[in-house]
Amino acid sequence: SFATIVKNEGGFLALFRGSIAATYLWIFYSAFQFSAYGHTKAWFESHDDPVRPHPTVVAFLSGGTAGLCATVATYPFDICRTTFAAGGITSGSVQSSFADPSVTNFRPPKSLREFAVSLYRRKGIKAFYAGCSPASIQIIPYMGLNFAIYDALTSGDRAVGMSAYAGTISGSVSKIIVYPIDTVKKRLQAQAVFGPIGDIYYGMFDCFKKILQHEGIGGFYRGLVPSVLKTGIATGLSFSLYRGTKNALEHFHDDYVDNVDDR
C-alpha cells in the first residue's frame, strides 16, 4: 500500500522510484507507437484490402503492429523500470544482481548507467529482453484493443476532451483483458534481474502453469487495481496530448499553406 511504501522504503520519494526509466520508456514508446500506427493505418487505407471497409478492424491491426514495434524497440527501459520499482520489496529476500553473489541484501542501482553495465556484465544482452515473449504476445491484443476501442468511441471526433475520455476507457478495458499475460511478463523480468523469488520459472508457459497451480486464478490479477488506474489515466493523457498536438500542427500547416497561396 501507499502507507507501507512511504513508511518502510524511504519516505514519499519511494513512490517515484524508477520514474526516470519510466519517463524514458514512455517518451520513446509513444514516439514509436504513434509513428508506426500512423504508417500502418495509412498502408491499410491505401491498399485494396478486405479489412479496408472496416475502420475498427484496421485500427486493431494497426494498433497491434505499432505496439509490437514499440515494445521490442524500448523493452530494455521496461526492464530498468521494473528493477528500480521493485528495489524496496526485494531487499533482504533475494540475491542481488548488482553486487557480489555472496551478498543477499539487494541494493537497487543508483543510475541507469549502473543498471545497464551491471546487468550486462552479469547476465549479458539476453537479460535486457527477459520476459519479452509474453510482452510481445500481450501487446498485440492490448494495443489492438486499445486503438480499436478508441476508434469506435471517438468515431472521427477530433475534440481533445473526447480523446481523453476514449483513451481512458480503452486503456482500462484492454489492460484488464490482457493483465494475466502482463503478470507472467513481470515475474520473468523480476527473476532475470533479482534471481528466483519462490518458484523458479523456465520460460513463459512454465511461469503460467506454476502461477495457476500455486496461486490460482487470483494470482494473475495481483496489483490489478493500481495498474488499471495508472494505465487508464496514462492512456487518456497520451491520446489527448497526441490529439491536441496533432490538431495544433494541422492548424499551423493549413494556415501556412493559406498564407503561401495568398502571396
Q: What's the story with the biggest beta sheet?
A: none
Task: Determine the number of helices (DSSP H or I, runs of at least 4 residues).
Answer: 9
SSE pattern: HHHHHHHHH
Measured by DSSP, the beta-strand proportion falls in under 5%
Q: List low-confidence stretches.
A: 88-105
**Kindly, what is the distance between the CA atoms of the first and last residues, rounded to a whole number of angstroms?**
63 Å
Shape: globular
The average pLDDT is 82
Q: Count every beta strand, where a strand is a DSSP E run of 2 or more residues.
A: 0
| C-alpha-based Rg, rounded | 21 Å
Which structural class fits the helix and strand makeup? mainly alpha
Percentage of residues assigned to helices: over 70%
